[in-house]
Design a protein that fits this description.
The chain has no helices and 9 strands.
């Protein structure tokens, strides 16, 4: 009863459904990426929505994913205070596909948060 898996189902899918940013110092930026994979048989115009007020940033709020191809979407985590943070990127295409990426990040306060350049003092 596996014959249904032989045929490639048409789909708009993600390579990752969770992005986890780990122990990012306050004031620094970490960038992780997820990919939207298009196997629907047609180009997809995709809208990306990230709820406001989180320390996560997406640059693009709309992109075209060509058929049989994929687009990588960078997400920035820019914490301004220590703690744990979470948010969602909602992805919808004009033809009705809906996907969600869950973002979570941990931000840490480091003693050298104010130091911009590494110390060059000789020991």
């Amino acid at each position: 009863a596996m014959e249904g898996h032989a045929k490639k189902k048409k789909s708009l899918s993600l390579d990752l459904e969770n992005l986890v940013f780990d122990a990012v110092p306050v004031g620094k930026i970490q960038i992780l990426k997820f990919a939207i994979k298009n196997r629907t048989g047609e180009h997809q115009l995709v809208n990306l929505y990230l709820e406001p007020g989180s320390p996560f940033i997406i640059i693009h709020n709309q992109l075209e994913v060509k058929n049989q191809s994929f687009s990588r979407v960078p997400v920035q985590f820019r914490p301004v205070r220590p703690g744990r943070f979470g948010a969602h990127v909602l992805i919808t295409s004009e033809s009705g596909w809906k996907l969600t990426v869950t973002l979570s990040g941990a931000a840490v306060q480091t003693d050298d948060s104010v130091t911009i350049y590494p110390s060059t003092s000789k020991k």
